[in-house]
Amino acid sequence: MATTTTGRAGHGAGARTASGRRTLLRLATAGSVDDGKSTLVGRLLFDTDSVLADTLDHVELVSRRKGLDRADLALLTDGLRAEREQGITIDVAYRYFHTPARKFILADCPGHVQYTRNTVTGSSTADVIVLLVDARKGVVEQTRRHLAVASLLRVPHVVLVVNKIDLVDFAEDVFTAVATDFARLALSLGVADSHAIPVSATEGDNVVTRSTRTPWYDGPTVLSYLETVDDTPVAVGADLRFPVQYVIRPQSAALAPWASAAPAVDGDYRGYAGKVESGRVRVGAEVVVLPRGSHATVTAIDTPDGPLEVAVAGQSVTLRLDTDVDVSRGDVLAATDAPPAPVREITATVCWLAERELTVGARVLVQHGTSLTKAVVRSLDGSLDLTYGAGGTPTWQPAARLGLNDIGRLRLALANPLPVDSYREHRTTGAFILVDEADGWTLGAGMVGSSAIPSGPATPSGPATPAPATSAAPVDAPSAAGGAGTHSAERSPA
Amino acid sequence: MSAPTTTAVPATSEPATPGALAPPPLSELQALESESVHIFREVAATFRSPVMLFSGGKDSVVMLHLAAKAFWPAPVPFTLLHVDTGHNFPEVLEYRDWATGFYGARLEVASVQDYLDDGRLRERPDGQRNPLQTVPLLDAITEGRHDAVFGGGRRDEERARAKERVYSLRDEFGQWDPRNQRPELWSLYNGRHLPGEHVRVFPLSNWTELDVWDYIEAEGIALPTIYYAHQREVVLRDDMWVAVTPVTPVRDGEQVEQRSVRYRTVGDMSCTAAVLSSATTVAEVITEVGLSSLTERGATRADDRMSEAAMEDRKREGYF
What we know:
The structure holds two protein chains of two kinds. Chain A has three domains: 2-228, P-loop containing nucleotide triphosphate hydrolases (Rossmann fold, 3-Layer(aba) Sandwich); 241-335, Beta Barrel (Elongation Factor Tu (Ef-tu), domain 3); 342-494, Beta Barrel (Elongation Factor Tu (Ef-tu), domain 3), CATH 2.40.30.10. Chain A has eight helices and 23 strands. Chain A has helices spanning 2-5, 37-47, 53-65, 81-86, 116-124, 141-152, 172-188, 222-228, and strands spanning 23-30, 93-98, 102-108, 128-134, 157-163, 193-198, 241-248, 271-275, 280-282, 286-290, 294-302, 310-312, 316-321, 332-335, 343-352, 358-359, 363-368, 371-385, 395-397, 401-402, 407-418, 431-435, 442-448. In chain A, the strands form five sheets. Chain A has a six-stranded mixed sheet with strand order 2-3-1-4-5-6, with helices on both faces. A six-stranded antiparallel barrel of chain A has the order 7-8-13-11-10-14. Chain A has a six-stranded antiparallel barrel with strand order 15-21-18-17-22-23. In chain A, a hairpin with a 2-residue loop joins strand 17 (363-368) and strand 18 (371-385). In chain A, helix 5 runs parallel beside helix 6 (141-152). By secondary structure, chain B is an alpha/beta fold. In chain B, the strands form two sheets. Chain B has a six-stranded mixed sheet, with helices on both faces. In chain B, helix 1 crosses helix 2. Classes of the chains: A alpha+beta, B alpha/beta. At the A-B interface, helix 3, strand 2, strand 3, helix 5 and strand 7 of A face helix 1, helix 2 and helix 6 of B.
């Protein structure tokens, strides 16, 4: 537990400086319909002074119209008319608030079972999942479902908000029972870091302000947890991955006046623009250009603010190489030690996000990094049954098709080789989306390699088995075994 | 001559911590800038004919600045489009033309006045022209065969926008269907669309008003002068300070006052009000914005006050 509250010296917790050294944390909320999620989010916004007077006026007006005796904070986060009419949240909404230490981007994900795809969407970029339960009900099926999603998407931190603690008279034993239940479940699903907090969102206990009514709880409030949780990008691998987005060639075009202070460049300048997705790149470093496999040396890291010696994960920069070989969009520049092997077949966990169904033989497009390639679904090796009971773990069941909100294991044959990573180590270059070739719809979210949720009967000690050293092995050696017909078995990485 | 490589490493790089496996997180502004640059490059690489809406307003200026940085040292690889309502502040039009040159871009103007003059549009009884922008905008998109249109919308502006994707698919009529949005995962933006459809792209989706101001300060970005406090003749109308202009003349019973005001948004003169202010620098504006008790749109945009779902209605119709 200590890992969640320990502030790190150096950065993050410090006050914002003139140079804007406030950092950015992305979170996603999840919970069942009546757990008070909208109220919690409203409370976070309200208590951090992120709600301005005219918005609050509006909420009070609507609350009065609905016959409520006080402002319903949940109304702060109800965006669309259909939601207002039905009183439910149907789509991911993004909220923003900040404290001196951090800016927060909150993906507010709907609670209904049928909207699991929204939880998947919100979780894909989240550093932290804020999961709600009703203290009176404890961990329920929807909690288990959302926690499994958080585990699959490898969200680094999960915080359980045990809400409505006022309705159980702030009873420590109720909280402890729920928290223990949850910790066991998180461990069994391989969630790296979890923490539980007793909260009353309606009354504000332990959201932003420490409650005097839970003296037995000495951990952080929800906001102080969010302010201090370790935001080192742990889910980003240490090895360089730089998908080339765009080739910049000014071809002697005149520089605009704004750029007069930027470094001068040659007429034959050729730079490779992209974002460092993981690791870091240094001037002088040798890189391998994938999928081709040729080597090159980085001669410069350019930005209009001046050249850099090193660029790190998250930075958009432009690289120059000492080679004239044709490097173009879709290529990935990778560290020479342990580069991903380009493969023509991938095994992946896929969250299906579309109404139309997925069956074996379907033709789809795979968008991975900056490349797009055609693919065929070779086999469907099971779908995840998330309706597992207390004390159990989710299981992979044989499946002939995937429908909306289903999570499946499948094997894809690719028209062109892709240098994919295992999602376990590389949350960015291990991810892809499936796209409908005909109408362009986003069909599914894919995660390459073995799932965080193991197949087969749950072993008492084991499901957590954190990435059994899949380190550098090519994620999916094409295998003859385990083709169509074998359902339950998840094929382990080669 | 190539770029020198010996310059001191700017603050963007991490301190040398030997042995540290993961780099420390970027600062908030670095992360936001980097995300926006990434979006610009994705669009430029995958769409045939993008265009950027440019009004001279602060969000569109920040967008243009980011676009210029994204493609440096090459020029911005798409044109700018301004839908001119004919009710713009002269200071903003002057700035628009200056900024286009400063950033080395090309500008096209679609004029609502032209549509009124030749009868394709009719003036509304309330005199507001913002609702009239939709037709010239969609015509310009169709005529230019633009398949991607950058807009400066931010999710923190308004409740309907909180649910909009970075890539927002529009049909032939420019309509947004909030019930039928594609999921947007990781930073994998899906821009595929059918003929006749186009994609609105919002590179500032995750920026707040305060972020925009912080960035303007950090980057030293010039803005139209009316963003800063200046003396102006105004009247108090519906609890908003409205400038006395040819399109917003004094009404009976109103008292003209000379006040120190600035604008928080610089849209159509007929529906944009000023706020009382003494802020003459970015830092002073930031102080005011941080302390202000009104949201940006609520304080000064009459058109959003029309109904609870005003923005959502106009977005469905193809407005940004």
